[in-house]
Amino acid sequence: MAMTAYKHLVHNSDGSLYRRTQVLGRGKYSNVYAVVRKTDGREYAVKSLKPRRAKKFKREILILRNLRAGPNIIEFYGAFVDAYTNEPALIFRKIDNTDWKELYPTLNGEDIRFYSFQLLRALDFAHSKGIMHRDVKPQNVVIDHKARELRLIDWGLADFYFPGAEYSLRVASRFYKPPEILLGNRRYDYSFDMWGAGCLLAAMIFSVEVMFRGDSEEDQLRAISSVLGGADLRAYARDYQIELTPEIIEVVGESRTKRIDLQSFGSRLTSTVGEREAIDVIEKLLRYDPCERLTARQALHHPYYTGLIQGIQDPQLASSAET
Fold this sequence. Notes:
Its EC number is 2.7.11.1. It holds the Pfam family Pkinase. This protein is of the alpha+beta class. Helix content is 34%, strand content 15%.
């Protein structure tokens, strides 16, 4: 798309001030580069967007502006038109993060408790602003372990929540899609993000790369129901009058009937109390019925995070649990 199509949106920064140094990541909708600002040598991360409608670009900028100063939200500095691609680009703080596949196996129980708490804080803030992330996964949760900092990044699939509105199903990565999305429910809400958070915490606690791994969207339901129970999935669909396709009935019919006790997965936690409470959080996030999942605020006040929540300066968050 021509530069003029974005002129009214990119007025915060001058792209000529930045020199690209290396590729940080490539994705379906964007590429991310490290850049240096020529005036002072400071490093930033630039997300160069691939051609798409200006409406979506405008929405992403609006969401990022609404999230500014939020805890554990990636710092957003502005936008410009990339001189290399002639497409819009977003400027962010560059995080010195370690790839999650290398980092997660090295984390101890206290690290997992700390970082999952920070993720929940980011989600609680976003949800308080009326924003669903819709793509919570390890690749979008960057951690600078030396600095003990976590940031939730990539808000390109995020959207504002309006009760009763219908939303796209073409969001999130397959391994982190909640059951209601896999079943075609377009009227979802913040609980979408809580499923992803539950999958991420479960993978950390149980020392697996992915909690639910399916080869297709139907097979993803098989992977989920083989752990959480096929009978419960069918009951959820019946209660919400969701008609299961023959393909789904086939894969769910082959899955385990009852929910597995998640303690049977084993965990890396050394504390019996910590293990029991961590698994309880996972149990309450990985529910078929979105209404039964913990909200981010409720999760923050779970006994698993006792001590961390008391250290938060926000009086509203620290003193009251959502019921």
